């Protein structure tokens, strides 16, 4: 796509919108950038972009910014029913996502990973495995740098590992990764997508432009992915924790790559540092993805023997009076919480949940809650919906803030129990993001532990 002198409007000035604006200006486009919010950070971005000759407006958008555009680059949070999108359609302005823009400038092969859960852990593992194999890997997307920040400087000697969302994939045109991986598909983001079909179709866009020399990797254990009957142009491989497949799988206590009849023993599950049963699937998908860009089995083994996991993803925080505290703040879906509870094998759980609802069906986890959870502590906007959905399955308490939730949880717990923050909801009702929510959980646990220690010392 020729961008020189093209009039482009960028909607949303977060990390990706800022990077998209700068890349467009570098390519000679006439850039108009707009954001409906205002903050000190956005004011700083406005000043930076205006110094580059980019027109910026905050807290509003004007018709001139839309009607002048020949192309619109939209940030992930902007919904299809937004007046901006409606205005673009009314004026026949093409709308693309930041990853589409980055792709147009990227010279490196791309490993793109999407799915409802496990994306960030998977791309992190892929990046580490490639680096351990001597490859020049760049980690971009929802983790790492914005894709547009790196794309123009890439070479064909590098590999881009890209985490992509359904929002981004919905607005692609030519985006074509060399390796496309879908970790799993379950209900999510019904606050953004009108229904499951729209959500799933957006995810499947990850491979829609692939050719016969590309690779698509699918979770065989996921009913929606295993049942795909549409024609896929690229080479298709699977990963599974329970079945021998052409790809990557578990056999007994060991992990294997088995590709077109060539079988390699990766390692034993007991030697893997990353905990959580759900992470075995993430590990298999990472090994398979990294393999198709030249990662060695030795490098995979090295990473799996040392990598302990990312912050806020089933992260063990502390122990107080024999009660273990686990931060799983990134679990913003019902299925992510289900995976976390399944990893608390043999222990009773006090679950802290709640936040901003994403249109989730909380009744779907009612049976597991009844089986695994000793007591449920609710926070945030979705309290009442969760309470109604899980009524009769578990004892339920309320907390106005995280400090109170942690204190109540310890009171409900006995030695050997787990207090698990696994919210099933977004964080934006109370916190900037899931990271802030997890950090405050950790601070609350540390404060409670210090207070108990001080009380014991004084007595």
Kindly summarize this structure in a few lines:
With 459 residues, the protein is α/β, with parallel strands linked by helices. It is 36% helix and 22% strand. Helix 14 (366-372) links the parallel strand 17 (349-353) and strand 18 (373-378).
Name its key features:
9-stranded mixed beta sheet; alpha/beta; Protein-Tyrosine Phosphatase, Chain A; globular; single chain; UDP-N-acetylmuramoyl-L-alanine:D-glutamate ligase; 20 strands
Descriptive report:
By secondary structure, this protein is α/β, with parallel strands linked by helices. The protein has three domains: 87 residues, Rossmann fold (3-Layer(aba) Sandwich), CATH 3.40.50; 206 residues, UDP-N-acetylmuramoyl-L-alanine:D-glutamate ligase (3-Layer(aba) Sandwich); 144 residues, Mur ligase, C-terminal domain (Protein-Tyrosine Phosphatase, Chain A), CATH 3.90.190. Helix content is 36%, strand content 22%. The protein contains 17 helices and 20 strands. A nine-stranded mixed beta sheet has the order 7-8-6-9-10-11-12-13-14, covered by helices on one side. The chain has a six-stranded mixed beta sheet with strand order 15-16-20-17-18-19, sandwiched between helices. It is globular, with a radius of gyration of 23 Å. The mean pLDDT is 92.
């Amino acid at each position: 796509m020729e961008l020189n002198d093209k009039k482009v409007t960028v909607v949303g000035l977060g990390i990706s919108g800022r990077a998209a604006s700068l890349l467009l200006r570098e390519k000679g486009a006439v850039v108009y950038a707009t954001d409906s919010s205002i903050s000190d950070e956005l004011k700083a971005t406005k000043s930076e972009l205006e110094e580059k000759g980019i027109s910026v407006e905050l807290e509003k958008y004007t018709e001139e910014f839309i009607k002048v555009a020949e192309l619109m680059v939209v940030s992930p949070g902007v919904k299809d029913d937004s007046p901006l999108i409606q205005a673009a359609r009314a004026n026949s302005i093409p709308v693309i996502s930041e990853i589409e823009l980055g792709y147009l400038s990227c010279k490196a092969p791309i490993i793109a990973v999407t799915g409802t859960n496990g994306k960030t852990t998977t791309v992190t593992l892929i990046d580490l495995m490639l680096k351990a194999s001597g490859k020049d890997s760049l980690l971009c997307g929802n983790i790492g740098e914005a894709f547009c920040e790196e794309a123009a400087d890439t070479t064909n000697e590098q590999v881009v590992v890209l985490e992509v969302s359904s929002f981004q994939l919905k607005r692609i045109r030519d985006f074509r990764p060399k390796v496309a991986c879908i970790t799993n598909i379950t209900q999510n983001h019904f606050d953004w997508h009108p229904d499951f079909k729209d959500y799933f179709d957006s995810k499947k866009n990850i491979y829609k432009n692939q050719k016969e020399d590309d690779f698509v990797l699918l979770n065989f254990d996921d009913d929606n992915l295993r049942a795909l009957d549409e024609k896929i142009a690229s080479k298709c491989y699977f990963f599974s924790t329970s079945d021998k497949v052409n790809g990557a799988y578990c056999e007994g206590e060991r992990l294997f790559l088995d590709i077109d009849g060539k079988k390699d023993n990766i390692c034993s599950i007991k030697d893997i540092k990353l905990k959580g049963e759900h992470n075995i699937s993430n590990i298999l998908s990472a090994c398979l993805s990294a393999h198709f860009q030249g990662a060695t089995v030795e490098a995979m083994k090295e990473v799996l023997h040392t990598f302990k996991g990312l912050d806020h993803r089933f992260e063990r925080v502390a122990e107080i009076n024999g009660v273990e505290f686990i931060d799983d703040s990134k679990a913003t879906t019902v299925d992510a919480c289900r995976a976390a509870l399944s990893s608390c094998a043999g222990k009773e759980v006090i679950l802290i949940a709640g936040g901003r609802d994403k249109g989730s069906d909380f009744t779907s986890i009612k049976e597991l809650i009844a089986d695994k959870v000793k007591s449920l502590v609710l926070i945030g906007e979705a309290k009442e919906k969760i309470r109604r959905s899980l009524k009769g399955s578990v004892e339920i308490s309320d907390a106005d803030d995280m400090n109170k939730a942690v204190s109540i949880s310890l009171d409900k717990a006995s030695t050997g129990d787990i207090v698990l923050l696994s919210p099933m909801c977004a964080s934006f009702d109370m916190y900037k993001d899931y990271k802030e929510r997890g950090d405050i959980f950790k601070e609350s646990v540390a404060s409670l532990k210090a207070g108990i220690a001080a009380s014991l010392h004084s007595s």
